[in-house]
Amino acid sequence: MAAPAPTARATPGGIALRDGHSTLLTCALDDDIEFWEKEVQPIGFDGGDAVDTTTMHNTTVRTKASRTLIDVTEATTNAAYDPGVLDSILAILNVETTWTITFPDGSTWAFFGYLRVANPQSVAEGAQPEIAINIQPTNTDPANGWVEAVPFLTNVAGT
Length: 159
Hints:
Layout: E1 24-27, E2 35-41, E3 45-46, E4 51-52, E5 64-65, E6 71-72, E7 75-81, H1 85-92, E8 97-102, E9 108-120, E10 130-137, E11 140-141, E12 147-148, E13 152-154
């Protein structure tokens, strides 16, 4: 049985973001929709639960394998809003289109998805009203025969 060999951490390339301000979320169907991002959770990636490969021939540990396909996780934002956004939301809810996350350095992450949830939060005196928004990635291009399409990153110079 071979033991795994240790690997030393190398210095990463690129430039780390120093501040999250101003990260924005844009819908191709309504690029000036009436909300103002306060927090943005970009899409992420999830490899899924491990595949159990344990057999009756294992003697000490359970064995596992990684899955083949990757899930792209939802993007979310908490935002201030104009009550008129509710009409805009109804116009794009569940409509598949391009969404873009723009990072403070100008890099963008474009992906296909749809507005899945728009939930106004409790409104109280002394607090700015907010709406919670969830964007579900679909990973398919609705304009090109629903072919598989992974999120596309555009880096700015120097990253």
